[in-house]
Known about the structure:
By secondary structure, this protein is α+β, with helices and mostly antiparallel strands. It is 43% helix and 18% strand. The longest helix has 15 residues, at 24-38. The termini are far apart.
Amino acid sequence: MWIPNSGRRLEVDGTVLVDEENLEYPRIYDRFAELIGRGESQLDEWRGA
């Protein structure tokens, strides 16, 4: 098993099983924008506020 490119690609015995775009940071930034737009924080959701 080989997982190069920050986990975006997964190979087992030379066969590529996953080869995806890195969406981690864009998803995080989208989440920040959503929270800021609502005037909330992630802690508000965890606390049930």
